[in-house]
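Help needed: design a sequence for this.
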């Protein structure tokens, strides 16, 4: 299963499932609108994403579009971060 985030769709992009040969992708907003949303609910999303991937690779899915890597965003555009500043002298 290949997943990507497209730039379209807001600050967190749009989650798509990508065909194994990288020729097509499929937006899956009914499963999760973003990769972060999919990760947050992975137990529910993983089997649904795998089924979408299997269907896309079998060529039996409507709504697939050509995959253009130039339209990809970073996978998690606004990933959560914890920054520890306690090691800096001016923070002690």
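Sure. Designed sequence:
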């Amino acid at each position: 299963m290949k997943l990507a985030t497209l730039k379209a769709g807001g600050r967190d992009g749009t989650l798509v499932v990508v065909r194994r040969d990288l020729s097509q992708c499929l937006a899956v907003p009914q499963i999760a609108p973003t990769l972060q949303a999919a990760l947050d609910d992975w137990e529910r999303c993983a089997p649904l994403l795998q089924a979408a991937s299997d269907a896309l690779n079998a060529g039996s899915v409507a709504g697939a579009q050509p995959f253009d890597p130039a339209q990809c965003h970073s996978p998690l555009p606004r990933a959560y971060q914890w920054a520890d500043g306690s090691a800096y002298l001016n923070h002690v």
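The longest helix spans residues 42-58.
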